[in-house]
Amino acid sequence: MKLVQRFSHFYSLLFLVSFSLLAFSCESSKQPENTYSVQIKPAFLSIDESPNNAKNWDPVNMFSFDHKPDVYYEIWMGQDRLFESESIKDEFKPKWDKVKPFYIPDTKPNAKLTIKFYDHDKKMGVKTGRFYNNDDLIGELKISIDELRKKAQNFDTLHFGNIKACVFAEPVMK
């Protein structure tokens, strides 16, 4: 009986260790080969508060009748979404504390990026349902990495759609 308990404990421990190693190995923070890292974070962001621009913001967010956007942004390169930020609730001037870097292939050193800012809407019902709302596009900008780097170094303001932004961009070359 004691021998069975020992084997049982041994296999339980072995299972936990192997599961931990598996979970640990899945979360790789290593930079993929043949890429360079870029981190883009809005240092200052101001969204036009005029009622015409805000008419679709938060009408389905039941507890937010002030029509302030729940802002998040995405960074795209062609058809590939490279990054999506967290959503900052009820803010015309959101601030993001932590932003993870994303990676661009070495073969595209001056790729065109598209930065899209959205108002996040709560989803009610199924995707085809009557109460389902897509997130509202607030504004988007297409810019090359070199242009973005120059504007970020000079703290130039980017204007696109209803948004004025000073963007912090930190390309980290290999």
TrEMBL record:
<dbReference type="InterPro" id="IPR000008">
    <property type="entry name" value="C2_dom"/>
</dbReference>
<feature type="domain" description="C2">
    <location>
        <begin position="28"/>
        <end position="159"/>
    </location>
</feature>
<dbReference type="InterPro" id="IPR035892">
    <property type="entry name" value="C2_domain_sf"/>
</dbReference>
<feature type="signal peptide">
    <location>
        <begin position="1"/>
        <end position="23"/>
    </location>
</feature>
<dbReference type="Pfam" id="PF00168">
    <property type="entry name" value="C2"/>
</dbReference>
<keyword id="KW-0732">Signal</keyword>
<protein>
    <submittedName>
        <fullName>C2 domain protein</fullName>
    </submittedName>
</protein>
